[in-house]
Amino acid sequence: MESLGKIAARLLGALVLCVGIWLVPMPAAAQELPPLEGYYVVENGQAVGPLPASEIEARVRDGRLSERSLVWRQGMNDWEEARFRPDLGPLIGSPRAAEADPAFNVRDFGTYLQGSWTSDPAQTDIPDMGQASVVNTIAFGADGTFRSLTKMSTVPGAPQPMSVNVEGTGTYTLSGANGETVTISFLGTSLTKIEGQPGNGFPDQLQFDATIKAMDQSTFIEDGSTYRKAAQ
Length: 232
Fold this sequence. Notes:
Elements: H1 7-12, E1 39-43, E2 46-51, H2 53-62, E3 70-72, E4 80-81, H3 89-92, H4 109-113, E5 115-119, E6 122-126, E7 130-140, E8 145-154, E9 163-175, E10 181-194, E11 202-216, E12 219-222, E13 225-229
Domain GYF: 39-88
Pfam families: GYF_2 (PF14237)
Protein name: GYF domain-containing protein
């Protein structure tokens, strides 16, 4: 299954190894861990960990670990924002942590998704070109259509400066909704444009599934990347 954050990687082939956040493998067997122990934390688009409690506390003190930081450890089904974890929330001081059931429930994902969503910037390494910043934007229409734009640009000082845009259009369907997660099936076409390259770009077909987890009314997580809804 491909993710929204990896569309550009597939289209660019050998040029890009991965777009988005590298995730640690999640073992099938859950293991009970002491509070604050064994967490992975997403920092600068990378999963760091497992961390001991002392490192978690240090990150809270210096601000590297905040309410909206993505965390995961054994026993969790998916990445979550730190404010929703019963052991991390009180440490950070999030009022949401005191709720008995912090899970956000979506009655109608079709309505929930309508509008434009943009991912938090992530970084990836491009062979022989250095690091690049990646941002994905996708707009869901009420009529079941979507438009997407993946922007990838090498960071200042990269050996080979480059900017790539991947535009996507097509239709989407929803399945497997359970109030918290839903699978989105995309079908359409894409056009990859490399800045400075002649021609009209490189067309391709889009067909993939992505499972998202709703965190609140304007935030969802997909494959470890956080997407935020634009104000309407």
